[in-house]
């Protein structure tokens, strides 16, 4: 019961943490580009403004998709805080990802449709890596439960450094950071307006944005799991991951999807993951 | 009582089929078909409720069954030989003659001097299969009542061919029931060949040139499987001295070291199962089968035919547990999974996508069989159950859609939601039951991944294949779901359709079954599939170690919290649905089109030069340059043939 309550508490705090992290992201990005940047709380101001807008949608499925995306992100985070099953977490995350695509395809809009096709390719690139990383967890701990990680004595980073790198790859794609922002990005360079999110506006866009914040918290949490033995270590890993993501976002140009799926993700990401799995298998 | 239930499941469909063929009245068919389906379904559920049993059944009404089946075997093979002669195919004739020779040798020289073989000894798996065959297969039969009416109207036939169609369908269902219920391999072989013959007749039902070609391909591939089956029977009779499935399994599981001679028959049985389940390189017959009327595809893919192969493998799996051969089977299945998932990505024909996805899921089941632990058996059984329901539903939906819009290309299904909102919604639900939690298919896949992660041999490559294949699966399902519900209106309202009541009834019932069964999937697992597998393991004194890995599924506390999560997910979906209903009508707007959006009818676009309306056209990425059929099929065939050679040759 206590664990459920604390997980719920974490879930309620998560949007605030996610919003703050997103504010940090915007500040850091601005500094990297020699700008001052918005106030730290700007994402929350944006959110309030979005919620105040009049709803405008092309069809009702869009609204359904927005809600399902948010709910699935919240569930995934809840499972994470509960120390639940990694595979279940993965599948619940897939619900959100699929509904983002479904929401984008169900509108006869070329921008969102092309965005959706590219988003599917992004999913093709990160999903196998995530499964392999989670199997790596299972090989180290003997089960897919996140709570079992805390029974280990030494940090996972020592056993699965390559899987950590592979996870970094997968997460950059999941967060749609440049150079993997081909389906929807902050930067204008993919020339797709806002890709999969083109058709969302006002309160529904706000829902998607909150879901994205929750994903950010979940992803940094997953990174932190690699150094579970010390709280400071977890913070360092999470902070380092976030900073690296932002840095990569700012120093890379966009990719074509062929290059991304073939060379970057499949070869590098899955290569790392496979080598590490074999290493665990032999050890 | 048991006699009667088995009679209702196995013999009754044949009798009804004969009656339907001889009395070609439309009115009688409309009464006889649904009532037979109801009787069969009730008999199947009765059998299931009764649990595993043994029934000697040496004779039926004074007729010695064993002799009768031998006689029927020869008649059947003789008929296939005759077909081969008619088709001018030396291949089919040659293989049938070999089968006949094998059968003569088996019955004449190697006769079983031991005690007579128990007639029926179904285990939990067989009973689950019987229920699937009678319920899902029955619903498909009811659906075909309405479907075939419209189908024949389109074809403008002079004489209706419906009597023949329904007769064969019922024989098919009866043969499947017989196949899963009987214990004697020789009887099973008879039913095995009947399903081959029925699928040949059904695929060639429309008598077009392409139908004949594809039916021929299905026939020769399955006759090859039959030949493998006969060889396996010969080896088993020679080495173990019996054809009783149960005694064979008992003897095999009691062995500590399984040598080549002992394993050889099982390699042949695997080969037979691979042909029936259309695994690569035999996938082309199932893809070709889509030329038949849609209920045939629905039957072949969900309740019958392809499931016969996986059933045989699952039943025989304990015999080769823990051998290298088992690992090769797992690798082969995983390779089929990833290969056919890639092929599915490049397809835009809905039936072909469904066909490749069926083959892929069968590959996943075969991977689980190859892993050969109790946990993987549970996963395989779960996938069989849920795949049958969802795939049957999806094929029936595609059939209805094709009859309405005249195409089964998914690109033509854009805006289908406006034309037929209910069918589009049911199809979308069907798609989601194939790929998303909390639906049953995904529970099966989840357990499969857990079981594979704990496998001892070749875990990494198998897992790599499965992870990659799963990602492709999401790719081709998600975009189809999006296309089906695409619309430029805020809401769509159903119009009175042209569909027959039987079609609507079957679609809604199966959709309801899919949703309900998914919702109670932890219960199905805990009270139904789990005990069935542990029953099998207890029967043969196998160690059910690692049963339900991690104990986070059927362990008491794990079970309830997963269930809680399902309820929460359902609540979430309901909440989202309610929010959707509350969107006011005035919130409707056109999609973003750089400020130029213009709407004409259901199309959105812009006014181009000379003020001509230009609709916006978008199409899916099919990645044909990477995954096109002509690009990778050959490679997949070569690699899979190598697997088969290793499977059989590796034993020598």
Outline the structure in words.
- The complex is a heterodimer of chains A (283) and B (652).
- With 283 residues, chain A is mainly alpha-helical.
- Chain A is built from ten helices and no strands.
- Chain A has helices spanning 2-32, 42-51, 60-81, 86-105, 110-141, 156-159, 161-174, 202-224, 231-251, 257-282.
- A three-stranded antiparallel sheet of chain B has the order 3-4-5, with no helix packed on it. Chain B has a two-stranded antiparallel ribbon with strand order 1-2.
- Helix content of chain B is 72%, strand content 2%.
- Chain B is mainly alpha-helical.
- The longest helix of chain B has 32 residues, at 124-155.
- Chain B has a domain at 583-615.
- In chain B, strand 4 and strand 5 form a beta hairpin.
- Chain B has helices spanning 2-22, 26-50, 65-86, 90-108, 124-155, 162-181, 185-203, 209-240, 245-254, 260-276, 283-288, 294-303, 306-316, 324-345, 350-371, 374-405, 416-419, 421-435, 440-453, 459-484, 501-519, 521-539, 556-581, 624-627, 629-649; strands spanning 59-60, 63-64, 598-600, 603-607, 613-615.
- Chain B starts with a helix and ends with a helix.
- Classes of the chains: A mainly alpha (283), B mainly alpha (652).
- Chains A and B meet through helix 3, helix 4, helix 5 and helix 10 of A and helix 19, helix 20 and helix 23 of B.
